[in-house]
Each structure stands twice: as structure tokens, then as C-alpha cells.
Write a structure and sequence with these properties.
Helix content is about 20%, strand content about 25%. The protein contains 7 helices and 17 strands. It comes from Arundo donax.
């Protein structure tokens, strides 16, 4: 077997890593696994046997202790030095990303696609070395002006997504987003320069902080997708010189002030001379899709 696709991310279902899986050394794709709390150290070490993996997706990381977080990090580092090109990790807000992956001494520099979901207070310190990275997904908890300044220098970056699972829109997360905005001067500024190949920018989050695109920001951006329940505001769309389409997807049950601010975004986009097409949709919060 070369491709093992398991679990269901929307329903929070994942395949528990087993000894049988770690023996499938021909695997090129392993998607939808869970690294459980209390997993045997031998299993985490055995992950390093999967040297043919090109795509590795972890849907859940449990509370790792007694050195298991270091073993998981070691496995990721080893696989990244072999064939791995696509890596996605959701740490389920256990802190693995901040505590362990951020401190990697042999980071996955050669990836083409990277996804980091969960509790991510800042982009990894080594991300500026990822010169082959084309597609990046980050937890919106890492969204700051400084984060965007770092990402702007990645030469091959084509697509950036900031996302957050709707079930994680609890007070702790809201506080993180509020503090990030304050630390960025009251707005998340997208400054001029960089992002030389970026064509797609997406925000998929229950709460979208105040965004301001400065003159000369993201000069090649063609598509902007905004999906939210609450939004503080989006300004400077007219400064996105190559923008062709704005997709605005709003919760079917937004607060009243969010309705007004969403309408404001629609008006601002429609007023841009020869501006982008505007597609408006809504999503049902009762569904699992987010």
C-alpha cells in the first residue's frame, strides 16, 4: 500500500497510530492519524521507518509527556530529511506546535506545503528558511503584522490561509486574537513589498480581526477569500493592484454589528474602479463544515 487516507477532519475523527501502520514502509501518503496521549515510545520511534512518505497529515496530537513530544519532533525532522514534501499538523491546542516544533534544530526546510493548526502563538522561528514553500496554512492565532512581514519574504509562496476551527472560538482564543491586534497597533497591517508570487489569501475563522492593506501590499494577489461569523473590518482593498475576485462567506447567524461590517466590506469592494468581482455566500454553523 502506498496511500493510507483515514479519519475525518471535520468530524474530528482520526486513525490511532499503530505498529501495523509504522511497518508500511512503502507508504507515500499517511493522512488522518492521531498521536494519542500515552502512545508507546517505540511507535513514535518507528515512525522514522516511513522514509518514503511524501505527505503526512496529523489530525490530532494528544497531551504528550515523558519525552514523547521530543520523539514525535525527531520523527518529523527525520522524515523531512527524506522524501517528505507536504506536512500538516493539528495539535488540538495541546501546545505541541509552540513548545516543540517551534524549537526544532533540524526543521522541515524543504517542504512545498505546510499546515499548522491549533495553538500557534507565532510562526516557527525557522520558517524564513523555507525557500521552496508554495502553500501555507496557519492557525489564525499566529496572525500579526510581524507574521506577515516574515511570510512576505518567502520567495515561492503562492497560497496563504489563516484558519481556526469553529469549535475553538472560546474565550482563550478570542483573547489571543485581541492581544495580537493590540500588539500590531490596533490593526493587522499588510505592508507594501514582498509576497512576490502570492496569488491566493484566505481567512477561515469565526472571528476576523481588523485588516488593513497598505498601498503596494501583495502586488500579485488575485483572489481574497474571507469567511467569518464576526469581523472587525477590512480596509485598503483598493490597494491590491492585481485583485480579481473577493469571496465573502458569512455565517448564517452573524451578530448584528457583523452584518453591518460585512455590508461595509461589500460596498468598499464594489466602489473600486475596474475592481474585482465580488461573490457573496453564507455558511450554516450547524453543519460540521468550517
Amino acid at each position: 500500500m502506498e496511500h493510507l487516507l483515514a479519519g475525518n477532519k471535520n468530524k474530528r475523527h482520526a486513525l490511532t497510530l499503530t505498529e501495523e501502520v509504522t511497518k508500511m514502509t512503502a507508504l507515500q501518503t499517511l493522512s488522518g492519524v492521531e498521536i494519542c496521549t500515552g502512545l508507546a515510545k517505540e511507535l513514535l520511534r518507528a515512525l522514522e521507518n516511513l522514509t518514503n512518505l511524501k505527505k503526512f497529515t496529523i489530525y490530532k496530537v494528544g497531551e504528550l509527556a515523558n519525552g514523547n513530544d521530543e520523539l514525535l519532533l525527531s520523527a518529523i525532522e527525520h522524515l523531512s530529511s527524506c522524501s517528505l514534501k507536504h506536512l500538516a499538523i493539528d495539535d488540538n491546542f495541546t501546545g505541541f506546535l509552540d513548545r516543540s516544533l517551534n524549537a526544532s534544530q533540524a526543521p522541515p526546510e524543504h517542504l512545498h506545503t505546510l499546515g499548522l493548526s491549533g495553538l500557534l502563538s507565532q510562526v516557527p522561528m525557522w520558517i524564513d528558511r523555507m525557500h521552496n514553500l508554495e502553500k501555507l496554512t496557519l492557525s489564525v492565532t499566529s496572525l500579526t503584522t510581524d507574521t506577515l512581514l516574515v511570510l512576505a519574504e518567502l520567495p515561492e509562496l503562492f497560497s496563504v490561509t489563516f484558519s481556526l476551527d469553529a469549535v475553538k472560538s472560546d474565550p482563550i482564543v478570542l483573547k489571543i486574537l485581541h492581544n495580537n491586534t493590540l500588539e500590531s497597533g490596533g490593526k493587522i497591517f499588510v505592508l507594501a513589498g514582498g509576497f512576490r508570487k502570492l496569488k491566493l489569501l484566505r481567512f477561515r475563522t469565526p472571528v476576523l480581526p481588523l485588516l488593513s492593506f497598505e498601498d503596494g501590499a501583495m502586488p500579485e494577489l488575485e483572489r481574497l477569500e474571507l469567511r467569518f461569523k464576526m469581523v472587525e473590518g477590512v480596509y485598503g482593498l483598493e490597494n491590491l493592484a492585481s485583485l480579481q475576485q473577493v469571496l465573502l462567506t458569512v455565517s448564517s447567524q452573524p451578530p448584528e454589528d457583523a452584518k453591518a461590517k460585512a455590508s461595509q466590506i461589500k460596498v468598499l469592494a464594489s466602489l473600486i474602479p475596474n475592481g474585482p468581482s465580488l461573490v457573496i455566500d453564507e455558511y450554516n454553523e450547524s453543519s460540521k463544515e468550517q
